[in-house]
Every structure is written in C-alpha cells, then in structure tokens.
Backbone:
C-alpha cells in the first residue's frame, strides 16, 4: 500500500517536472514573445509555434511507469492539462462571422461604398482591427493620441469624423470600446474612449 | 448506450428521408387555421393546404406584415428597381441563404441572409454600418425592400422586426411578399446572384 502511494507520488512529481521544464521542447526564449509589428505579415504563424511545446508533453521515461500504474486514476488530469486550448472563435460564431463579412463585402461592392482594401472603413481593415484587439484594448500608438475624452454633443460618428476624418471608422471605434459602451449611443461626457489605430 | 444512440440517429435520419421523399404534405394554412370550410348556398366547401414545409414556421403570410410596412407587388418592385435602386438610394434584398441566392434571384437584388440581421449576431453593428445606419438617431442610407422564397416564407417578417428593433425606420422598409417563386411563376426573368 505505502509502496503504491510512493510510486504514485513519484510518478506525479516526475510528470509535473517534465511538463514544467519540457527538456525535449524548443527553447522557451524562441517562443515567448516575438515582436508583433504592423509589417509582420504572417501573424497566423504564431499559433503553431506556440502550440508546438504543448503537443509533445508526455515524456518517454514516464511511459513504463504509466503501464505499471494503469489502474491509478490520478495521472489523467495531467494528460488533460496538456491539451491545446480550443481556438477562441469556433463553430457557429465563426460561420456567422464569415457570413456577415461576405454579406458586407457584397453589399459594399453593390453599393460602391467600399473603401480601398486595407484603408479605414474597409472590410479588411475592420477584420485586422478585430484580430489585433481581441480584448477590446487599442494597441499603443506613437503617432496618434490613444485616448479621446467625450465632449457634449459627441456621437461615435462625429468622433470618428473628427479624429480620423472618416465616418466609416465608427465601427472599429465602437469595437475598441465595447468593454465600456453598452451601445453605440451610450456615451457620457468626460468618458475616455480608446482610439484604435486606423 | 452507444447502440441506443446509433439507433435513435438512424430513426431520425429515416424520418428525414421520408420527409424528403414526400415533398407535399398536409400543412396548416396559418398558425391558428388547419383548414378552412364554409358553405355556399347549402353546399359544404373545404380548403386545405399541401406544402413541402410545415406550418409553423412556413405559414402563409398576411398581405400586410405591419400597418406601417408597405407591401409590394411585381409592378411596384419593377418600378422600385427602375427608380430607387437605379439612383443608388435603395436596395432590393434577398433574405435567403447565399447558396439559394447564387442559384437564382431577382436581377439586381443583393443578398443579406436573415440570420445575419438577428440581434445575437456580434457583427450586426458592422453590417448595419454598411447599410449606412451608423447612429440610431441618424437616417440610414438605403430604402430596403425585402423578399425571400415565397409568400409562405417567415423570414421577411423576422428580418423586418429585427431591423426595426435595431433602429431601422419602418418608412424605409418594404416587403415583396411573393418572393422568388412568385416572381418566376409570372415568367419574369431571374439571374444567378453576384
């Protein structure tokens, strides 16, 4: 009985240690935080790089122990921990997003209102802004003020017109402040709005 | 457990197969009327309905969805296309799924699937901005006339209700009741969606 418990404790300690240090995985310094810049086009390449260490977490030396303790229920949570997290957007919400973007693309093409690709107000621009600011915080900017203080008579559209010279930035502006705004008209005088980079 | 799941899945797919092989089935006329019967000069007359889809949801729609929403016939739709759509101030909107729109629609219509207009779409504000509705206080850019498959499609009513609750004014919304099927039944030309 004591031997079994000691075996289990030893197995857990070794597994946790191996998962934590990951001796076979790539160097942590390589993975930690690559510089994200506007010119870094291949942002999507980040995700495979970040997942790589998680895909080979169960080390070889632990295998014989696992066989001898096949009836031991405790190691299972360890394996569960190493599963890669599901993508934040999945399933129906993803389909709805694609459907909405396609609809907007067709609408803009049909009405001739579409801005040039990548310009503020364009579909591409809105998508990039959304992917860059998943938590609703605007990225730091060194050329533009990053905060706007609401004045009497302001609406999101007038602020977009005033700050960017483009009323089509209303959508990205609202998206960047969704944490503090219940709706597009929920503005209070003196409230500080984050300004997304155009 | 596993066997029971497989069995129930087979039964459900079997039901769908039966429903698919018999397109016309007895359906209700409207949510509260299964059949209509009356007598004319002592003779009993009954009217029932055979339809591919069950009611609800595919019930025959009333001529007027709401007192302030204008209903269009074909001649009104043609005039709407010639004047308002041609001048860039209006859109004829196909509410069906993109696949149905691509297969054939009223020439000049744009596609806005009904589900993208629902309040639970997180990207609804972007879509409304593309229609020019950037501020609830401001007027949107476009008059819209909405249509779907046929006069028994429930989607135009749902979409008009969703647009109104998003702040789209009723005066800028219209309803072409007959839909693509009514359009084609009159021999009017259709075109694949853009």
Residues:
């Amino acid at each position: 009985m004591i031997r079994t418990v000691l075996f289990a404790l030893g197995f857990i300690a070794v597994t946790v240690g191996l998962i934590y240090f990951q001796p076979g995985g790539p160097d942590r310094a390589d993975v930690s935080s690559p510089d994200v810049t506007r010119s870094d086009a291949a942002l999507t390449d980040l995700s495979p790089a970040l997942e790589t260490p998680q895909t080979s977490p169960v080390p070889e030396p632990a295998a014989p122990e696992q066989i001898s303790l096949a009836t031991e229920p405790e190691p299972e949570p360890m394996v569960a921990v190493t599963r890669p997290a599901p993508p934040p957007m999945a399933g129906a919400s993803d389909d709805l997003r694609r459907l909405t973007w396609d609809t907007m693309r067709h609408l803009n093409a049909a009405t001739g209102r579409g801005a040039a690709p990548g310009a503020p107000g364009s579909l591409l621009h809105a998508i990039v802004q959304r992917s860059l600011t998943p938590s609703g915080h605007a990225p730091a900017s060194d050329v533009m003020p990053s905060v706007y203080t609401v004045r009497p008579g302001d609406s999101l559209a007038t602020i977009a017109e005033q700050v960017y010279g483009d009323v089509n930035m209303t959508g990205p502006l609202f998206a960047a402040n969704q944490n503090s705004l219940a709706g597009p008209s929920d503005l209070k005088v003196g409230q500080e709005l984050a300004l997304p980079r155009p | 457990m596993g066997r029971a799941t497989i069995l129930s899945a087979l039964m459900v797919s079997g039901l769908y197969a039966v429903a698919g092989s018999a397109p016309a089935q007895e359906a209700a006329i409207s949510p509260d009327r299964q059949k209509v019967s009356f007598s004319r000069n002592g003779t009993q007359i009954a009217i029932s309905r055979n339809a591919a889809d069950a009611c609800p949801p595919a019930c025959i729609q009333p001529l007027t969805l709401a007192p302030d929403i204008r209903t269009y016939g074909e001649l009104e739709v043609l005039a709407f296309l010639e004047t308002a759509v041609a001048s860039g101030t209006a859109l004829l909107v196909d509410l069906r799924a993109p696949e149905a729109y691509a297969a054939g629609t009223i020439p000049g219509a744009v596609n806005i699937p009904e589900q993208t207009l629902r309040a639970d779409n997180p990207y609804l504000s972007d879509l409304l901005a593309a229609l020019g509705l950037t501020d609830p206080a401001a007027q949107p850019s476009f008059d819209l006339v909405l249509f779907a498959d046929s006069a028994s499609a429930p989607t135009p009513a749902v979409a008009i209700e969703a647009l109104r609750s998003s702040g789209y004014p009723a005066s800028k919304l219209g309803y072409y009741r007959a839909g693509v099927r009514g359009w084609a039944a009159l021999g009017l030309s259709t075109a694949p969606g853009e």
Q: What stands out?
A: The longest strand of chain B covers residues 36-40. Chain B touches chain A at residues 88, 91, 98, 110-113, 115-116, 121-127, 129-132, 134-138, 141-142, 194 (CB under 8 Å). The helical segments of chain B are 2-21, 74-85, 98-103, 124-130, 155-165, 179-185. The CA atoms of residues 159 and 168 of chain B lie 11 Å apart.
